[in-house]
Amino acid sequence: MATYVLVHGAWGGAWVWHRLLGPLRAAGHTAHAVTLTGTGDRAHLLHPGIGLADHVRDVVAVVQAEELGPVILVGHSYGGMVVTGAADALLSAGTEVSQLVYVDAVVPHSGECWSSLHDAETVAARTAAARAHGHSLPPPGPAVFGLDAADTAWLARRHVPHPFGPYREPLHFDAARLALVPRTFVDCHAPAFPTIAPFRARVRAEPGWDVREISTGHFPMVSTPEALARILLELAAVRR
């Protein structure tokens, strides 16, 4: 059976995967949802010094503490940065990463930051917002994610500010090593979240990507968990 490690995006927490864990576990698989330092139920640990490297270590620590492997790393949105770094660290330590899945996520090249492909206006707006909120990024109004009223309210209650350090911290990794890991991008385009547009284009232009589409918005684990679970289960069956 497969072992999934699920990594949320900005402003979230392990809670965002709540509707996905059941279907994965019901199919006989193991699934762990990670909460990154300073977010979700660990929001009380938020401080200005948190960086991308800390979030990578969060994921690596779960895999090592639970003695997991091989693992399917699944990252949503900003979580794409984190699973990329975690995959590189785990592989270098001898832990097998059987697949990388990017759910409407950032897909970095080595040396890039989370902010590298954002336009100047977005970078300026987020930098200004972080300065005004104690070096953390306040969550946007969840209406931008294309959810229904109940799910929009659910996100609004749970979203917390995100550490700003990871926004400008570059990620360096062995691109050749990661290229050997099967990679899937789940494109959620109805409506499309604007800052993911460069990565939708990137995975279609580069070789080696399996691109799947779900006709939903940026949070498929909330809006269409059955469809996302179906993709993850198919991937585990094909590449077991």
Describe this structure in words.
The protein is α/β, with parallel strands linked by helices. It contains nine helices and eight strands. The protein has helices at 18-26, 52-65, 79-92, 120-132, 149-158, 175-178, 197-205, 220-223, 225-238; strands spanning 3-7, 30-34, 71-76, 97-103, 136-137, 162-163, 183-188, 209-214. Strands 2-1-3-4-7-8 form a six-stranded parallel β-sheet, with helices on both faces. Helix 1 links the parallel strand 1 (3-7) and strand 2.
Task: Write out key terms for the chains shown.
8 strands, 16% strand, alpha/beta
Secondary-structure blueprint:
Elements: E1 3-7, H1 18-26, E2 30-34, H2 52-65, E3 71-76, H3 79-92, E4 97-103, H4 120-132, E5 136-137, H5 149-158, E6 162-163, H6 175-178, E7 183-188, H7 197-205, E8 209-214, H8 220-223, H9 225-238
Parallel strand pairs: 1-2, 1-3, 3-4, 4-7, 7-8
Antiparallel strand pairs: 5-6
Helix pairs in contact: 1-9, 2-3
